[in-house]
Amino acid sequence: MAYPDAGNMSYFVYHSSILVGQGYTVVTFDYRGFGKSSDFSIERDMLYYKEFATDLIAVGDFIHQKFPNKKIGIWGMSMGSIIAVKAIEKLQDKISFLVVEGFVTNLSLITERIEKQKGVSIIQPEKDVDYIRSIESLNLPILIFSASKDEITPTEDVLKFRNSTRNRCEIISFEGERLSGFNSGEGEWGSFYINQINKFTSKISV
């Protein structure tokens, strides 16, 4: 689980417990400088740090060694989707699928939208071309949750991505605010979201 740029892994305890109840093994971690992980100087105007991808790569390598015969996926949200993309580029065949919400497909667009919406200046840690290369290197099934009221990573972005990608890419659109997918749908909290993940993972060959 690669979470957004706010909070820490404790914010997703209930999400994790629901996934565990569905038979998934869930591994959470904190990026350096978050939660109780090692200290790391963080500037609030930095879009993300490449070091966070290094942290996820280390987690991915560990999980692959511990569960060598299991299908491993990454669930990335907002900034976490960037970190997931960068990590998968290095993890290669160790990751079998990707689930994302608030999926970042273009750094400059995201930066412009955040600056306009929040009135702040944002620093990109790498050039657009570098992130595009990482995006284009993805070669695995992807499930994308897209909120109707998401002005930072709108549905139009992921539709363009799907049209240009060679991956098996599915988009689940829902009515609601950005990163509110777990709150959407009928029934118990998270049931809509988990049902979509279950349908998606059931299609991935064992």
Structure description:
Pfam families: Hydrolase_4 (PF12146). This is Lysophospholipase. Residues 18-100 form the Serine aminopeptidase S33 domain. 40% of the residues lie in helices and 11% in strands. The protein is of the alpha/beta class and 206 residues long.
List the helices and strands and how they pair.
Layout: H1 13-21, H2 50-66, E1 73-77, H3 79-91, E2 97-101, H4 107-118, H5 128-136, E3 142-147, H6 155-164, E4 169-174, H7 191-202
Parallel strand pairs: 1-2, 2-3, 3-4
Helix pairs in contact: 2-3
Organism: Belliella calami
Domain Serine aminopeptidase S33: 18-100
InterPro entries: AB_hydrolase_fold (IPR029058), Hydrolase_4 (IPR022742)
In brief:
This protein has one domain: 3-Layer(aba) Sandwich (Rossmann fold).
Descriptive tags:
single chain; 206 residues; Rossmann fold; 4-stranded parallel beta sheet; globular; Hydrolase_4; Lysophospholipase; AB_hydrolase_fold
- CATH classification class: Alpha Beta
Side by side, the strands of the main sheet go 1-2-3-4
In total, the number of strands is: 4
- Give the overall form: globular
Helix coverage percent: 25-40%
Mean pLDDT: 91
Distance between the termini: 21 Å
Radius of gyration: 16 Å
CATH superfamily: Alpha/Beta hydrolase fold, catalytic domain
Low-confidence stretches: none
Strand and helix order: HHEHEHHEHEH
Q: What's the CATH architecture?
A: 3-Layer(aba) Sandwich
Domain Serine aminopeptidase S33: 18-100
Protein name: Lysophospholipase
InterPro entries: AB_hydrolase_fold (IPR029058), Hydrolase_4 (IPR022742)
Organism: Belliella calami
